[in-house]
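To illustrate this point, we now present one chain and its tokenised fold:
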Amino acid sequence: MSSNNNNNNSDKQQSSETSKTNETQQSTVQDPNQLDALPQDDEQKLKAQDEASKKNETSEEKKGEAHIDVEDIALVQKYSRGPYSQKISKIEEEIKNLHKKVDGLSKKDSDTGLAPQRLWDLNSDNALMKKESALKVAKCTKIMEDEKYMIRVPQEGKYVVGLHKTLAPTDVEEDSRVGIETGYQSKSEIKLPLPPKLDPAVKMMEIAEVPDITYDDVGGCKEQIEQIRECVEWPLLYPERYSRLGINPPGGVLLYGPPGTGKTLTAKAVANKTDATFIRVIGTELVQRYIGEGARMVRDLFQMARQKKAAIMFFDEIDSIGGTRFGDNGTGGIEVQRTMLEIVNQLDGFSGRGNVKVLMATNRPDTLDPALTRPGRIDRKIEFGMPDLEARVHIFKIHASKLNKEKNIRFELLARLCPNTSGAEIRSVCTEAGMFAIRDRRKIVNEKDMLDSISKVIKGYKRFSSTANYMIFN
């Protein structure tokens, strides 16, 4: 019985185990998603581990890296040169030098205006130079008939030559410089008219820029400005008015008066209005060391003025060379007289409707030579006197317009406090008023500054004024 029971129990256990294995097999067969889920988790874990290992490797590599310094580079260049490194470096230096030479030559071409070197034809240039001969500089002394000209070559003599086919008879004038071609195979002829030879000191007297002074900048000289415009400005701008009437406008104008009354300022305003070349000559510049130099400079001045379309010659301080002639002056006085006589001769050579007008200014009209101031040479004499009350107010407003000032300044009061003062002194008053404002560290000039400057300039410097002698003389 017992044996039967044991057999039954073993059979039950075997049946239970087989049932469990069947259930597990069914469960594994029924859930296929679980089989797929397991390898995906393993792949993600492997990827995360690989990324972490890579990050660790890169961090370790960065920690082990070190930047190369200049010294390390120098060591590498010194001890790691190949067998051809020196030759290569020499070739590189030669290439750099060639580049520099090319740049220099290209700059020369652009600066000098030459054509590029690839366009040069030296053989044809040499052949052309052999055909053309150098020109000699000569002076045409006389114009003869049949297009013949008498010329004088320095240190050779006089010749009668013809005119080149490329020139017209009007291109050559008497007393002009010309270039002549001479040779055994070719005939002598005038080939090129040359500009006149002028002294560099004379060229420096020409003012290149037109003065920026207008008639509005000249105060208290209304009548004088009208007279100057009739003599100088209108003949240059409207010459047909005078030719229609058959009259010659005044050729020269003398401006005289006390110093600082606006003579030079008015001359600059005329030059600005007419757009003419303004040539300013100070009398002392014509007094030279050697005999004949002053007269030659005067000739060059008038010759330069004739070449301009319109020119105004302004002789300032003409009394320094235009004084009355005396018997006993010595060598220096004779030279000054020669300079003055050359001015007189040049003034006679001008026509009334010419393109050159002459202005002269002086503080001492009584010392001028009568030959210089006679009608025909100096046709109009204009006096610039001391400004009156209305003129002084106008001058104050002109000079104060450039100042940063108060609006309630009484210019008429200031003009009454400055009797017998010139325009230059009034300008000095305005400048000194600005200096008072600068001393007080102010940005605006007030009336008190003007009053203080009047007491300083007009009353304080009165003993240095030279206008009293002039007024007594007149």
Notes: The domain at 201-383 is CATH 3.40.50.300 (Rossmann fold). Confidence is low (pLDDT under 50) at residues 1-10, 17-38.
